Amino acid sequence: MNCDDVLKFGRYRRLIRLYLAGLLVCIAGDAFAHQRSYSYSYWDLERNPVRVELRVSQLELTRLPMGAAWGSELSDALATYLLRSLTLHTANARCIPVARPRLLQGRQGQARFEFYLDCGGGQPSAIVSSLFREVMPTHIHFARIIGPQWKEHVLDFDRAEWAFRSQTKASSISIGEATVLGMKHIATGYDHLVFIWVLILMAGTARGLIVVLTGFTLGHSVTLGFATLGWLHPEVRAVEALIGFSIALVATENAWLEAGRSRFVSVIAGSMLFVVVGLSLVGWGLDFPIAAGIALFAFCYWRLLGIQRVPERLRLLVAVAFGLVHGFGFAGVLAEMNLASDSGLPVLFGFNLGVEVGQLLIVTVIWPLLHLVMIHRPIVYRGITDAATLVSCSLGVFWFVTRAFV
Coil, strand, or helix at residue 111? Predict the structure, then answer.
């Protein structure tokens, strides 16, 4: 074994240690993988008693102590919690539940509840939500009054009450509210933040950064619009898994380049994808066409990287491709709102603007600092990029596995 082999082995060992450390961080911080928290309610105030439909993901319910053992039956504790945390009021009193909530048939991964409220002849004037406040203060609830005079409103920790009048003109979420919502979404979407981080690491130069961010923006803007307007209906589980895969693949590319285009990194990545495809054949994890498509994409991209002397030429392509995937992830919150046709475009514009503003703020803070370290402390910069790349890859693998197989 010559000196070069010893140096390479030492570098691989350091990379493996960083990778394992990143996996431990992921396993220890399971809640880190799911921080966006939303629920939705629909109120038919023209009925007497008032009909209420609540929609929330089953994963969201596991945050609650009484929802941890979620199943096909609605427990008394969970029913009591829902009626206490989502209420309707008249000018003088709180509307009384007619009966306990009942479960409705929902799409996969979603829980739908229906209950009725008696306002005693009074006119409903306010909706109050404290859902998930105890376990997730950043939770956002979307309330919608259905009927000829529809209205929509966003409720959160700071604005728990929505006071309205039945005779007012129909209204929707404003562009300003949608912009703030988009900024909050990107700020609490840690998987999207990590992907932006690996794009920054992959860029290398200011010009490269502009290229990949432009591609990412174009990609996610397209699918965000298509999914929000109901033109495309992707499988949520596959989208979430692909977001994890996008992080893992781009971070692996960074590690591969840092390791001098080593076959070691390629073999490890290829072996993991081979296992994913094999498991899909026996019915575990993603459907076989999706798993096979992921493997084929990674193989073709890796082959193109191998023959490209300047990998930057491919980065716009991969940024656009994965931007399309992340756009479906961004669209989840808006698609569930089922926006009215005349309100959908302004809300979509505002939400996308908020995502872009949040993304730009993150890059504006991180990129100059990282660039300064690169110029003045190159050794420190190398350590930061090595650690960040391996931890990002660990997070991507963790998210991909937990979303595809759990």
Answer: strand
